[in-house]
Design goal:
The chain is of the alpha+beta class. It is built from ten helices and ten strands. A four-stranded mixed sheet has the order 1-4-5-8, with helices on one face. The protein has a four-stranded antiparallel sheet with strand order 2-3-7-6, with no helix packed on it. A two-stranded antiparallel ribbon has the order 9-10. A hairpin with a 2-residue loop joins strand 2 and strand 3. Helix 1 crosses helix 3, helix 7 runs antiparallel to helix 8 and helix 8 runs antiparallel to helix 10. The chain is globular and about 80 Å long. The two termini are 34 Å apart. The chain binds flavin-adenine dinucleotide.
Length: 380
């Protein structure tokens, strides 16, 4: 975020996160990429420092501060070093609001302390092999039986899928009722019938675990239903703006980092007897990227301020998400090009950023779906 958006407290927090990232993440991230997932220990370290569940009330182990700037700072610091295996944003930005806004006091007492300490890693499972953008096509069912729901189905592409101890699953509890028949159920690690499938092989984000999940007659207690049964669609709609804002913040941070690295490269790489940055074409490329990034940064920072003021609606979040991730996609492509052959080598940070962050226009609702949301609001 821009300096002007931050108070001294934010800056102190940023320094603390930066130190944590340098000590606890950077030395291990290559190894986690080879292993295909991060070590649980890093979650516990983050929990100890108060980086998980910042907005969770103090009585449940959080800091009790509802200010999205803190979450954005964590994402930026993680992105600055290309540590895309860290799934804190999914936990903090995406899952936390469900537990904060929908959980009963009893559920909060059960789950939030572990959520904040890093003992309980979370995930949310909406997507299925046959249902991504079109969530009304969800086939996973949860049939009420006594004081349980019997859950059957499969989910795919689930972030933190292997490590997760708690998974919020979107399932159909009332057949034939379209979007009004979906509910949110919290599935816990050891519930019989809950298994994980393949840890999926992605083109990037090698350390981020992304998995298939299977539910075979899993008996989920009714006490694990989150929010109102049959109202999952409304609950998702309420929480997706924050998820999308988080992705926008991530995207701008990724692009800014790659741009800074590329600028440095263009100053030092020599061709035809001069730094490549001295060629007018390259200068113009850099000038255009600097401008687009400024615009995106200003827009996303404003969206964060609007969100903190309770004014970020679904349309504004959709605009921030598609715009920021599209700028990121274009900037990263140009950064790769300006690095020449080195831009195609895995060891070059912009190459890694290019593949790791390509997912931003895809997940959290594709950018095409974002434009649908904006277009519908225009009445067309
Ligand atoms: C790394 C990764 C992590 C993920 N993490 C999670 C997670 O934690 N939890 C979770 O539930 N999901 C997760 N997802 C899933 C992600 O949200 C979906 O992949 C995404 O919503 C798109 O759904 P789909 O893959 O089924 O594509 P589809 O919906 O099949 O879309 C295919 C193409 O068609 C386009 N399209 C579809 N409908 C329309 C339309 N109406 N108008 C115009 N174009 C349209 C899409 O924009 C896209 O370009 C993750 C995905 C990835 C890759």
């Amino acid at each position: 975020m821009r300096e002007s958006e931050l108070t001294q407290e934010h800056r102190d927090f940023q320094a603390m996160v930066r130190d944590f990232v340098e000590r606890e993440i950077v030395p291990h991230h290559d190894g986690w990429e080879r292993a295909g997932l991060v070590d649980r220990e890093v979650w516990r370290h983050a929990g100890k420092l108060g980086l998980l569940g910042i907005d969770v009330p103090e009585e449940y182990g959080g800091a009790g501060v509802r200010d999205f700037r803190y979450q954005a700072i964590i994402s930026e610091e993680v992105m600055r070093v290309g540590a895309t295996g860290i799934g804190f944003a999914l936990h903090n930005d995406v899952v936390a609001p469900y537990l904060l806004d929908l959980a009963t006091d009893e559920q909060k007492r059960r789950w939030l302390p572990g959520f904040c300490s890093g003992e309980l890693i979370t995930a949310i499972a909406m997507t299925e092999p046959e249902a991504g953008s079109d969530l009304q096509a969800i086939r996973t069912t949860a049939r009420p039986e006594g004081d349980t729901y019997v859950l059957n189905g499969a989910k795919t592409f689930i972030t933190n899928g292997i490590l997760a101890d708690l998974v919020i699953v979107v399932a159909r509890t009332q057949p034939g009722r379209g979007s009004r028949g979906l509910s949110l159920l919290v599935v816990e690690r050891d519930m019989p019938g809950f298994t994980r499938g393949r840890k999926l092989e992605k083109i990037g984000m090698a350390a981020q675990d992304t998995a298939e999940l299977f539910f075979d007659d899993v008996r989920v207690p009714a006490a694990n239903v989150l929010g109102r049964p049959g109202r999952a669609f409304l609950h998702l709609a309420a929480n997706l703006p924050q998820e999308r804002l988080g992705i926008a913040a991530y995207a701008v941070a990724a692009a800014e980092t790659a741009f800074a690295q590329t600028l440095e490269y263009c100053r030092s790489r020599v061709a035809f007897g001069q730094p490549i940055g001295a060629f007018q074409h390259v200068r113009f490329e850099l000038a255009e990227m600097a401008t687009e990034l400024d615009v995106a940064r200003t827009y996303v920072d404003r969206a964060i301020a609007e969100h903190n003021a309770g004014r970020l609606d679904a349309v504004a979040a959709a605009k921030a998400k598609w715009w920021a991730t599209d700028v990121q996609r274009r900037v990263l492509d140009r950064c790769v090009q300006l690095h020449g052959g080195y831009g195609y080598m895995r060891e070059t940070p912009v190459a890694k950023a290019f593949v790791d962050n390509r997912v931003h226009p895809i997940y959290g609702g594709t950018n095409e779906i974002m434009k649908e949301i904006i277009g519908r609001d225009l009445g067309v």
